Amino acid sequence: MAVEHTDDARLSEGDRNEWTLQDEDARRYVHRAVDATVGLVESTFGPRGMEKLVVTEDLQNRPEEIRLDDAGRLLEAIERGEGFTHPIAALFVDSVADMYGGLHDGTTTAVLLAGALLDEGFELVERGVAPSSVVVGYAIARSQAGEVLDDLARPIEPEDHAAIANVAATTMTTELDPAVRERLADHVATAIGELAAVRDDGWINTDDAKVLASRGVDPAIHDGLVLARPEDADPTGRELEEPIEDARVAILDSEINLEETASVIDDVQLSSAEGTNRYTSELAAHIESIAEGLRARGVDVMVCQDALDESVARPLEQAGIVVVDKAKYPKEDVHRLARATGGAVVSNVADLSDDRLGRAGRVTQRHVGESVWTAFEDCPGPVRTLTTGGETAAETTRREQALEDAIETAGTAAIDGQVLPGAGASAMAVATAVRESARSVEGHERLALVAFADALERLPRTLARNAGHDPITAVTSLRNAHTGEGRSEAGVDPATGMPMDAVVAGVLEPRRVFSQAIETAAAAVERLLTVDAVLYPNVRLQGYTPRPENK
């Protein structure tokens, strides 16, 4: 995604091949790049945010057009295309990218807050405040924010189904039918509770909660793993028409190589028809012996990550073993299956000892769209599969992404055991406290604390504006709700723009997400606010588009 504009900053040229931007011009160059990046994601913020149509490339480098309403996925999609070629924009995006990669939430908050902090900081610098004083003031405010959030945070347990479901629903800010959102959030809470119950160290492995989506599929949760494979899987064409009960499962991450396992054919010479016939018969006999041996040990299902040749698959199925091949998208599914069934993934069929076989209480199969879904359910291991779908491909993708993000966010809340009120409540609570504490700070740092509070208030202001309400009225009302004794949990009601109790409304977010958004934004601004010169020898920098919307 290449977007450009002509920057009107003056160039101080030592010669034709080198140039430098200094002081005000350098700050303008930095500011415009960040401002333009903020403009890309600003309208996506909150439950009433807008979508972006991004022309980019998929993971196989094929052109694709996707609709996104999440800053993390939006920035990731741009990077898959032509990326951010402007050096300041690239640096800024890189500074906040870990929010999505690590937490799957909070990226938009971090970007908007960083943009607001930079706006306020540069304004102070233009008024004569030293950048170092702004950085120190922001550091004081960050410390104050931590204390406020300590008081504001509420405890949460993995088995608190309703609270975990509220965290999941809050994360799913994408446009979803309320009934669908509630059902998906309920499944997320169930999965998180069950994954937490199998461990006593407080850790939840969210990789053990898989999301699988296809058009027309109703939301459901499976106690085990559902493998999705291409429609041409199962080389013999044999359908698994009846469920397999109490199945023993063998799992391979590579094809069955007969020539490596059949030592009896080492001496066969293929220089004659007789030798060729002997070679073929020895191979057939060998695979039959493998099939009979596996069946004798009770193997019911053979799962292979790679495709199996019909000459290999047919003897297995004739021996009564169901073949499930091409289980390679995603590749980690065979390892999830091993954790679910209590088995082990092996690379050589000769290594399939009894203790490496897994178990599934029930194995079923069905065709879904252009895929074959094989479900391994009632498994002993801690793996759950959440399935969903919509009437259209876009709606299906929207639900799939919402589920993936909700699992990570709900898992974070359950692991940390702390949540905060959402809807801008935490931002306003911190802003109110920082503004109050600024009265006791001397010097220019006091101005920086006030600027930090002003920047935080832009978050509820953007929520209100994106919901179609007057942002000034909304922020003024919310500020009044946070005055007085104690910490208020009031946030912006997207339906009215007026204050609401975010906890009572069930709008909850993990403490770590908002705390990390503040730290990420402040760290990014500290890197950029202290830039007083841009030196770029031998290359003439291209520009970057101004904000396209909502200034």
Structure overview:
Helices cover 46% and strands 17% of the residues. The strands form six sheets. Strands 8, 9, 10, 11, 12, 13 and 14 form a seven-stranded mixed sheet that branches. It has a three-stranded antiparallel sheet with strand order 1-2-20. The protein has a three-stranded antiparallel sheet with strand order 5-16-19, with helices on both faces. The relative contact order is 0.18. It is α+β, with helices and mostly antiparallel strands and 551 residues long. A hairpin with a 5-residue loop joins strand 3 and strand 4 (63-68). It folds into two domains: 12-154 and 420-535, GroEL-like equatorial domain (GROEL, domain 1, Orthogonal Bundle); 224-378, GroEL (3-Layer(bba) Sandwich), CATH 3.50.7. Helix 1 runs antiparallel to helix 4 (107-126), helix 5 crosses helix 13 and helix 14 packs across helix 15. It contains 16 helices and 20 strands. The protein is elongated, with a radius of gyration of 29 Å.
Q: Could you give a quick summary of the protein structure above?
A:
The chain has 551 residues and is of the alpha+beta class. It contains 16 helices and 20 strands. It folds into 2 domains: 12-154 and 420-535, GroEL-like equatorial domain (GROEL, domain 1); 224-378, GroEL (3-Layer(bba) Sandwich), CATH 3.50.7.
